[in-house]
TrEMBL record:
Reaction(s) this enzyme catalyzes, per UniProt: alpha-D-glucosaminyl-[heparan sulfate](n) + 3'-phosphoadenylyl sulfate = 6-sulfo-alpha-D-glucosaminyl-[heparan sulfate](n) + adenosine 3',5'-bisphosphate + H(+)
Localisation per UniProt entry: Membrane
Top-level taxon of the source organism: Eukaryota
GO terms assigned for molecular function: heparan sulfate 6-sulfotransferase activity
EC number: 2.8.2.-
Residue ranges, annotated region (Disordered): 213-233
Function: 6-O-sulfation enzyme which catalyzes the transfer of sulfate from 3'-phosphoadenosine 5'-phosphosulfate (PAPS) to position 6 of the N-sulfoglucosamine residue (GlcNS) of heparan sulfate.
Organism: Vombatus ursinus (Common wombat)
InterPro entries from the UniProt entry: Heparan_SO4-6-sulfoTrfase, P-loop_NTPase, Sulfotransferase
Transmembrane intervals: none
Membrane topology category: Single-pass type II membrane protein
The protein's name in its UniProt record: Heparan-sulfate 6-O-sulfotransferase
Length: 245
């Protein structure tokens, strides 16, 4: 009974981190190239897994290790394409992995809008390319403090890949929905960040004003009375701040 009560009061939040689509795609290619697979992923949608016809494999054998970037890009069934939109969107709106459910253009638009909506509805999301701002937003959203500041590492596996402009353009085409989502996410992220910053500055101004008023009221009292009264308002004020946070 106690356990059921505890379960009822738990509140869960969906959060996610997005990454620049080109960097993310190249990183996944390098990951697959080293032998990674997603064989254990069921890709459940509307209570069922996709058929082999709906989701054909990109390779034969146990894994796709050693595949070239060109081979990776050439597979039309590669789930790396627009992965971020696919994982954020409600796939049941487009018939899951059944590509004949609705026309391709309509499918793409529905998926993108669904991903945007779900991103907006999340209590928090961050961007890999903006680690410090991501940390700030997380801390301000959930009233938590990390022990150490987030570090911005730009020397990633994807960063070590030399790709010409034509290859980059091809990756952007394959991930057009992810590119659109990421542009949208950057704008929304900045809005949320600026809002939290403004809120913090406003709270700090209120705090400073209250402290000044408290200091002045203490100075206006006789010394003994000020000492006695000076302690209590401070405790009340701290309680107010704790409740507020």
């Amino acid at each position: 009974s106690t356990r059921k009560t505890c379960m009822r009061i738990l509140k869960f939040y969906y959060i996610t981190l997005l990454r620049d689509p080109v960097s993310r795609y190249l990183s996944e290619w390098r990951h697959v190239q080293r032998g990674a697979t997603w064989k254990t992923s069921l890709h459940m949608c509307d209570g069922r897994t996709p058929t082999p016809e709906e989701l054909p494999p990109c390779y034969e054998g146990t894994d796709w290790s050693g595949c070239t970037l060109q081979e990776f890009m050439d597979c039309p069934y590669n789930l790396a394409n627009n992965r971020q939109v696919r994982m954020l969107a409600d796939l049941s709106l487009v018939g899951c992995y059944n590509m004949s459910f609705i026309p391709e253009n309509k499918r793409a638009q529905v998926l993108l809008e669904s991903a945007k909506k779900n991103l907006r509805d999340m209590a928090f999301f961050g961007l890999t390319e903006f680690q410090r701002k991501t940390q700030y937003l997380f801390e301000r959203t959930f009233n938590l403090k990390f022990i150490r500041p987030f570090m911005q590492y730009n020397s990633t596996r994807a960063g070590g890949v030399e790709a010409d402009s034509e290859t980059i353009r091809r990756i952007e085409e394959l991930n057009d929905l992810d590119v659109q989502l990421y542009d949208y996410a950057k704008d929304l992220f900045q809005q949320r960040y600026q809002y939290k910053r403004q809120l913090e500055r406003m709270e700090q101004r209120i705090k400073n004003r209250e402290e000044r008023l408290l200091h002045r009221s203490s100075e206006a009292l006789p010394k003994e009375e000020a000492e006695e009264q000076g302690r209590l308002p401070t405790e009340d004020y701290m309680s107010h701040i704790i409740e507020k946070w």
